[in-house]
Design a protein that fits this description.
The chain has a single domain (2-218), classed as Rossmann fold (3-Layer(aba) Sandwich). Helix content is 34%, strand content 27%. It has six helices and nine strands; from the N terminus they run H-H-E-E-H-E-H-E-H-E-E-H-E-E-E. The protein starts with a helix and ends in an 11-residue tail after the last strand. Bound molecules: S-adenosyl-L-homocysteine. Residues 77-80, 103-104, 106-107, 109-110, 124-127, 130, 152-154, 169-170, 222, 224-226 line the site of S-adenosyl-L-homocysteine (SAH). S-adenosyl-L-homocysteine binds next to strand 2, helix 4 and strand 4. Belongs to the methyltransferase superfamily. L-isoaspartyl/D-aspartyl protein methyltransferase family.
Length: 230
């Protein structure tokens, strides 16, 4: 009886410690990987401090959740490096009333970070099991303002357009034209353009109906794919 009590106590302590550890590791991640670089936007930092990245990665890499790199999430896909998630978020200048479209749900982590800041996130994933798992994770963690869909994001989400911001998290040679159409006036679109090892984040802005663009960071993202199914 006493022994099992001790065992339960020990288990409880491990759980609590892990919880604390994760929070500490998240703080450290924000300090060194984000503030230590060029992430200054208050809302972005707050969201990155809050969202439990370890809940979005497979168990076997959970201990690496707050390290400075991408991680495998199955189906040959990855969750982006925390810095890239924060960088893209900051570039979009998200506001509380914004409605945002994400192409490439993956683990659901980027969607959760945006959901901490904006009104609603619409997110599309082409790999069905990933989309379903992300939906489950987001629901479990209480993100009611993320709407998920399985499909080919090339076409965007016309029924919900226009969007104040659009984020594409898979690399492609050229911007899918429907995404420009679905961008609201003043809206921003960030997307990795190029081939896998020669890719740049491009930030597009719609001003007076015209699209302007600025080249940003060199990056490496998994490829944007097209499905016949959709
Ligand atoms: N934002 C994700 C990282 C995604 S990796 C996260 O936070 O975890 C890129 C994702 O884009 C992959 O899951 C891939 O399956 C998806 N993808 C690739 N092409 C797509 C398309 N045409 N439509 C929707 N999703 C796509």
């Amino acid at each position: 009886m006493i022994r099992s009590g001790i065992l339960i106590l020990a288990l409880l302590m491990t759980t609590t410690n892990n919880g604390q550890n994760y929070q500490e590791r998240r703080e450290e991640m924000v300090k060194t990987q984000l503030q230590g670089r060029d992430i200054t936007d208050h809302e972005t930092l707050k969201a990155m401090r809050k969202v439990k990245r370890h809940e979005f990665v497979p168990k076997k890499v959970q201990h690496l959740a707050y390290t400075d790199g991408p991680l495998p999430i199955g189906y040959a896909q990855t969750i982006s490096q925390p810095y890239i998630v924060a960088y893209m978020t900051q570039q979009l200048k998200p506001k509380p009333h914004h409605r945002v479209l994400e192409i490439g749900t993956g683990s659901g982590y980027q969607a959760a970070v945006l959901a901490e800041i904006v009104d609603t996130v619409y997110t599309i994933e082409i790999v069905e099991p990933l989309g379903l798992r992300a939906k489950e994770t987001l629901t479990r963690l209480g993100y009611k303002n993320v709407i998920t869909k399985i499909g080919d994001g090339y076409k965007g989400w016309p029924e919900e357009a226009p969007f104040d911001a659009i984020i594409v998290t898979a690399g492609i040679n050229e911007v899918p034209p429907p995404l420009f159409d679905q961008l609201a006036e003043g809206g921003k679109l960030i997307i990795p353009v190029g081939t896998r090892f020669n890719m740049k984040l491009i930030l597009y802005t719609k001003i007076n109906g015209k699209i302007r663009h600025k080249e940003k960071l060199a990056v490496s993202f998994v490829p944007f794919t097209r499905g016949d199914k959709f």
